[in-house]
Structures are given as C-alpha cells and as structure tokens.
C-alpha cells in the first residue's frame, strides 16, 4: 500500500474504555450483588447494557473499530486467568458447581448447555468474586499495581503443576454482542508473555519458579481462544504485551519471538495486533516486527515518544498495520492535535497502514469532562477525559484520511484551547516560578548532620528507648463520614462540623494518653483523603466532582488534577494540629502528605517536567512544615508511601526520577531547626530498589510496613548501613486481627537484630483509618505493652 492509500484508510479506535458507566452503575450493581440486593441476572443485565451503551457511544462518536473483552466485573487479568483456566486449587472447589467458570459471567441465554446441570440462581458469579475478594474460608489472589498506574490487578498464581484449559466463553460472548450491534469489533486480550510475567509462584511453589517456563503449555490455549474468536467472526484480535516495555532479558525476548511466531503460524486465525504501552518498546520492537503478526500498537506519548525514532531505526513495519497511540490514555489534558498529526504523517511512511488510537486503554482516565460543573470553564477547556479523547482520536483519523482541511474547525478550536492553557496565569504564576528557580542545594539540606540533630532531638523530646507512635489516621467512623455528608448537604454548618472534628480529636488524644503512647497524633478526622485534602487547599490543584477512575474491583478514586503553578494561600493543617497539641503535654506529630505522593496520586501536568511540579508542591509544603514548627510542633511527619510506585519502568530513567523525588522531600523538610524531628512513612513494601533513595531523604525517623514480612524492611535498611531511626511496623493494619503482646514482642526483638535499641521505634504498619475502634484499642495497648516488656529486658 502506498502512503497515500495508507492515509485514506486511516481508522479510529481505542484500546479500552472506562467500565463503570456514567454514574458508576457497575459498581453499584456489583456491590448490590455482594449484599444480596441485586440478583445475578440483574447484575448481568446491567453489565450487558453498560457494554452496549459504551459501544454505541463509541460508534456514534465515529470510532470505526470498537474494543471488546476490555469490560470486566472486577479485573481483566483475573478474567485472563479464567480464560486460560488458571484457577488456584483452593478456588476450584468453590467453582465446581459449574463446568465453565467464565460462563458464570454470562446471561443464561448465552450459556452453552452445561451437561444438563441447571445453573443455580444467585450463585454463578460467586466463584469469580471469591478469587477477587476471598471468602471466610478461601484467601483471594494477591493484588498489585498494573505497571506504574494506579490500577490494581489480581496476580495469577502458577506453578509447575498448572494445567491450562481454554475457556473463551466470555470473550466470544462480548464479541458476539458487539457484532450483533452491527459494529466492527476487535477483541482485546492480555498477551501470553505479559500474562506469565505478571504471575507469581502459587502458594507452596518454590519462590524460584519462573512462570515463563509455562509458555509452551499456555500457547495452545491462546491458539484455541483465537480459533474460537475467529469462528465467532473476529477479523482482528489485540494481544496486549505492556510487560515488554520494561528492561527484559534475552530469554524473555526469545519467549516473545517464539510466542508470536507460533501464534502467527496458526492456520485459521484472526489477524493479530500486538499492543504495548506506557514506555518505549525498545529491544522488543525489532523482535516483534520480525514475527508474522499483522500489526503493532505503539504508544507515542510521554516516556514512549521515543518509539517514533526506534521505529524508523528498524526500518518501520512494511506491510503491517500500525495502531498509533498518539492520544495520552492515562492523563487528562487535551491533545496537541497538530503535533499529533505531524507524528502520524511521519508514521505513514513507516507502515503499511496507520490507524489512530489512545496510547493505552482509557480505563485510566475519568469518563467525561463535560459533566464537571465546579471547574472554571476557562480551565475545563484544557481537559479531555475518555469521551473527549475519543473525539480527538476520531478527529485525528479524519485529518489523516482526508487532510487537515477536513478538520479545520477542530484544529482552530484546539489551537485556541492550547493557547489558553499556555498563556494562563494559573499555569504561569511568576511568584511561584521565581521562587522555584531560586532554590539552591542548601535549601534542601538540614542545617546540621544527623548525629548532631539526633542529640538535639533527644534532649528536646525526652523520649524513652523504643518510643511508641502511630502513623497518623485513627478509625474513620460512620459518624465522621455522616458529619462530612451532613456538611455537604447543608444539614449542619461549618461550626457544627468543626465541633464534631474537635470532639473526635479529643477522644483520639485521650485514648493515646491513657494507652501510654509516647508520640501522639490528632487522628486526621478532618481529611477525606490524604491527597485530596491538600489539593483542595492549594492553588493550582483542581478537584473533580465526577472524575472517578477504577483503582481496583469496585473501588474508584477521584484523583485531583495538578493543573497550574502550585501555591499555598494559607496554612492547611496548623489549626487542628495545634488544637491537638493544646490538649496534651506529650508531642503531637504534625502530619503531611509528601510531594512525590501528591504527584503519584493525582493527574500531573504534561507541560513541564515532573520534577518542576514536584518542586512547586514541595515549596508549598515547606511553608506548612515551617508554620507547624513555629506553632509549636516538635515532630512532623511527611508521608511518602508512593515513592517506590512512581519509579520509572525503564531502569535508565530511574536515577533522574530519584534525584528530583528525594530533592522534593528534602526541600519540604529541610527548613526546620535541628531539634525538630522529621519523620517519614512508607508502606506497600519492596523497598529493595530504593534503599539509597530512602537514605537520601535524610529524615530523622522512618516508619515502614514490615509486620507481614517479619521486619524484612528493617533488615534491608541495615544492610546498606542506614544510620537513622526506624520504626518497622509490628501491627498489620490490613487485617482485622489484633496482634498479641507476645507476637509484637517477638517482632520487636527481631527488629533489634537489625536496628539498635537507640534507633528503633514501635508503631503499626500504616494508618488506622480502615480499622474499627475495638481492634485499634486492643492492638495499640498490646503494642505499648510489648514496647515496655522489651525496654525492660534491655
Ligand atoms: Zn502507610
């Protein structure tokens, strides 16, 4: 095909679309099903209707080929485990009532005959949800982050005895639904290599087991699914291989080559599109280009923009279909259409056919920016959620196929919107910029080295050995949630709300004093969320009303948007912290969310380097830290639970990230006196990659998640000679279990193997907001008793 006819054939598509529906109907139906208020048929009907509405909307917007199989009741990786029959042994029994696990997800009308066994009403989805959430008797699959996004998937559990078996029912049913609407549809599957790379050894299997060794067993199952989809009318099938954008060994690259050579050699199969996203495909690009697959989908946004030159370097994809992800699928900004058209124009010379898509599934962005009412319309023009992104993709495809004249109006509007953003006072606050530009290395350094600070803090705080503390939040009770709802609905006024907060703080303080905790917290009752609370108080940060994004299962979050230059019009936490301090003689920790976590759990600016945004947030937080100190706080904690999770996927980019991330933390905290003690906190373990960075934060005390791993984090820090104080958690707050005194004592003794008594703290793994008061009371009393016991034995 010549490039002119390649252009004329350009089509619009997306890799996937938000699942929840305009009013989170899916979440409501599923949670209703769990509570027994919605029956299985009603849930399936809601799901089918949401899928139909979504496809229709995409088609009406001008999308030529809609995705299928991107829907899920919980998680698409779990769906893949069902599709390949990788059901953990402990769950098989729960599912034994029916032969086909995925048929549990289908309307009765679409079920193949299941050997005469009638389906029982109300129970067919239960085995699936049991794998996702666990039951009283059976533990769920582990959950972890999907690459560097905030979406979480259920980790496949595999072992040498895993027997795969194809179950294509759900994929075939969805394809059939979409084809039935008269649409061109493309099933989207997690690819076999990525599926295995995301898996972990099943419980009881040696940790050294490499799931990739199962590839030869898995490929025939994919072959069968592809055959079923072909028989059901699939022209193209997309296989997602995002795991190939990370640094991979020759063995993994060979596995990818083999997988797509073998699948490509199947006699009667759909055409195959292998998709990658989130970073450049790198060494895997020439590997995949050489396989017989008919198309590749590549990300051309952000860190992945280098795919363009890589593609040229390998001589393009002659004769193949290239699906060009030029619209950022994981951020919320309008697309620079002319720049994208230029990229697409270059790509035309590099492939047999070029289609336009999002960089990845639109699952990672909210549904529709047009329903936001509280965002200034001048700023709302800069935002593109899934609906708006779809329109951009369609526009770009039209521009590519028919020339820019065909989209002149869209280009003019886009130019104006981009100019409005670039020239806005919100994105360019001269005072913020001048301050950030004037930062020196000294601003990010404490005035004295740690040893001297530690002595000053010891004298100032007068804490016992093995001091006890908590991580910040106390139970977010139903009363607190009601109070917030009452305030929003106008049933109570600000004064009434604040009195409830004050009463809660009094109770939290009284409990901690009585329990004998040494460094107290106010309990964070006034915070809806540890990022949103600050976003609502900083200029340049936007909160959305309906910007829900799936975090996992039926849990959706509304990440705020870092839209402009960041400044702090007034103190954000000083009032409640000083109120709490006024109630006690013991130190009360000031409690802030750190700059890296603020970025990680928000949508970030794409018009300046991340490090610059981090620096602006850090300077605003620095003022808060200094104000807390002035108001009398001697201990201030700056939480950075997300430091590890924003680590770039490619190792080459990590040093630069860690440099600006640790600088932002130090900038936040370095302005205090030597005798003011700076704490930080991290959870979501696996600190192995960032031990040096943790040291570079130069915090006086760090509390870490460590109870489940039996103090592993403390041991790891000790191996790099970490010189400061450490509080490895001795209370696993993810479980309703109350640790006994003996258990906490044993963990503390283990902690002492790694960290000397003068530098060891006693605390839970994380905040207590998700726990109930009875457990928290008992657990903290035990924790104090354990600290006393170990102290006395020293
Ligand atoms: Zn935590």
From TrEMBL:
CDD domains: CIMS_C_terminal_like, CIMS_N_terminal_like. L-homocysteine binds at residues 471-473, 524, 639. Keywords: Amino-acid biosynthesis, Metal-binding, Methionine biosynthesis, Methyltransferase, Repeat, Transferase, Zinc. Residues 1-13 have a biased composition (Low complexity). GO terms for biological process: methionine biosynthetic process; methylation. 5-methyltetrahydropteroyltri-L-glutamate binds at residues 24-27, 145, 150, 601, 645. Residues 466-788 form the Cobalamin-independent methionine synthase MetE C-terminal/archaeal domain. Its cofactor is Zn(2+). Zn(2+) 1 binds at residues 681, 683, 696, 705, 766. The active site is at residue 734. Pathway: Amino-acid biosynthesis; L-methionine biosynthesis via de novo pathway; L-methionine from L-homocysteine (MetE route): step 1/1. Residues 1-22, 96-119 are annotated as: Disordered. L-methionine binds at residues 471-473, 524, 639. Transmembrane segments: none annotated. Binds 1 zinc ion per subunit. Zn(2+) binds at residues 681, 683, 705, 766. The keyword ATP-binding does not apply. Residues 13-95, 124-347 form the Cobalamin-independent methionine synthase MetE N-terminal domain. One of its GO terms (molecular function) is zinc ion binding. It catalyses: 5-methyltetrahydropteroyltri-L-glutamate + L-homocysteine = tetrahydropteroyltri-L-glutamate + L-methionine. Belongs to the vitamin-B12 independent methionine synthase family. HAMAP family: Meth_synth. Catalyzes the transfer of a methyl group from 5-methyltetrahydrofolate to homocysteine resulting in methionine formation. This is 5-methyltetrahydropteroyltriglutamate--homocysteine methyltransferase. It comes from Streptomyces caniferus.
């Amino acid at each position: 095909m010549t490039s002119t006819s390649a252009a004329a054939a350009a089509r619009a598509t997306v890799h996937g679309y938000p699942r929840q529906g305009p009013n989170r109907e899916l979440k409501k139906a599923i949670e209703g099903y769990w509570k027994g208020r919605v029956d299985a048929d009603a849930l399936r009907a809601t799901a089918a209707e949401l899928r139909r509405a979504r496809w229709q909307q995409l088609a009406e917007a001008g999308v030529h080929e809609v995705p299928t199989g991107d829907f899920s009741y919980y998680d698409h990786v779990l769906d893949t485990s069902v599709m390949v029959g990788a059901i953990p042994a402990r769950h098989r029994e729960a599912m034994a009532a029916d032969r086909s696990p995925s048929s549990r997800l289908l309307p009765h009308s679409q079920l193949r005959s299941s050997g005469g066994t009638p389906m029982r009403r109300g129970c067919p989805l239960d085995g699936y949800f049991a794998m996702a959430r666990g039951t009283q008797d059976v533990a769920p699959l582990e959950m972890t982050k999907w690459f560097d996004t905030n979406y979480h998937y259920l980790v496949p559990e595999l072992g040498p005895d895993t027997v795969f078996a194809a179950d294509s029912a759900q994929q075939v049913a969805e394809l059939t639904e979409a084809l039935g609407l008269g649409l061109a549809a493309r099933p989207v599957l997690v690819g076999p290599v990525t599926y295995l790379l995301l898996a972990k050894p099943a419980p009881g299997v040696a940790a050294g087991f490499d799931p990739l060794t199962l590839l030869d067993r898995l490929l025939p199952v994919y072959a069968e699914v592809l055959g079923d989809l072909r028989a059901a009318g699939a022209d193209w099938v997309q296989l997602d291989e995002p795991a190939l954008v990370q640094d991979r060994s020759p063995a993994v690259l060979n596995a990818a080559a083999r997988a797509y050579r073998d699948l490509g050699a199947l006699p009667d199969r759909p055409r195959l599109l292998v998709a990658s996203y989130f970073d450049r495909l790198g060494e895997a690009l020439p590997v995949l280009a050489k396989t017989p697959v008919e198309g590749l989908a590549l990300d051309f946004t952000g860190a992945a923009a280098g795919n363009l030159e890589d593609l040229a370097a390998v001589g393009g994809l002659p004769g193949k279909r290239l699906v060009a992800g030029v619209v950022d699928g994981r951020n919320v900004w309008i697309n620079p259409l002319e720049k994208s058209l230029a990229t697409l124009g270059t790509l035309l010379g590099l492939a047999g056919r070029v289609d336009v898509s999002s960089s990845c599934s639109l699952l990672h962005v909210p549904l529709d920016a047009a329903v936001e009412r509280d965002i200034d319309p001048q700023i709302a023009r800069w935002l593109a959620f899934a609906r708006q992104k779809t329109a951009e993709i369609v526009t770009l495809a039209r521009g590519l196929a028919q020339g820019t004249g065909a989209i002149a109006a869209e280009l003019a509007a886009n130019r104006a919107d981009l100019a409005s953003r670039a020239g806005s006072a919100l994105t360019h606050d001269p005072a913020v910029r001048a301050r950030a530009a004037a930062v020196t290395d000294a601003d990010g350094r404490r005035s004295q080295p740690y040893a001297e600070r530690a002595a000053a803090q010891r004298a100032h705080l007068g804490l016992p050995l093995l001091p006890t503390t908590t991580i910040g939040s106390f139970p977010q009770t139903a009363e607190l949630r009601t109070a917030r709802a009452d305030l929003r609905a106008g049933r109570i006024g600000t004064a009434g709300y604040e009195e409830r907060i004050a009463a809660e703080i009094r109770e939290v303080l009284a409990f901690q004093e009585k329990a004998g905790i040494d460094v107290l917290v106010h309990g964070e009752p006034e915070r809806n969320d540890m990022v949103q609370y600050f976003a609502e108080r900083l200029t340049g940060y936007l909160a959305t009303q309906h910007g829900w994004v799936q975090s996992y299962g039926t849990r959706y979050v509304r990440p705020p948007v870092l839209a402009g230059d960041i400044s702090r019009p007034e103190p954000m936490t000083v009032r409640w912290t000083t109120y709490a301090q006024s109630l006690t003689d013991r130190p009360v920790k000031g409690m802030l969310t750190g700059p890296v976590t603020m970025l990680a759990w928000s949508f970030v600016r794409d018009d300046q380097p991340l490090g610059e945004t981090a620096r602006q947030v850090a300077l605003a937080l620095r003022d808060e830290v200094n104000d807390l100190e002035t108001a009398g706080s001697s201990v201030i904690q700056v939480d950075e639970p997300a430091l590890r999770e924003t680590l770039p996927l490619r190792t080459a980019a990590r040093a630069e990230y860690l440099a600006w991330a640790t600088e932002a933390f130090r900038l936040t905290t370095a302005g205090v006196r030597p005798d003011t003690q700076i704490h930080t906190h991290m959870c979501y373990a696996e600190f192995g990659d960032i031990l040096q960075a943790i040291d570079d934060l130069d915090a006086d005390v760090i509390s870490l998640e460590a109870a489940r791993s039996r103090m592993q984090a403390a041991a790891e820090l000790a191996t790099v000679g970490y010189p400061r104080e450490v509080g490895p958690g001795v209370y696993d707050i993810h479980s309703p279990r109350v640790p006994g005194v003996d258990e906490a004592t044993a963990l503390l003794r283990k902690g002492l193997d790694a960290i000397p008594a003068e530098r060891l703290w006693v605390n839970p793994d994380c905040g207590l907001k998700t726990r109930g008061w009875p457990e928290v009371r008992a657990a903290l009393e035990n924790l104090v008793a354990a600290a006393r016991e170990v102290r006395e034995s020293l």
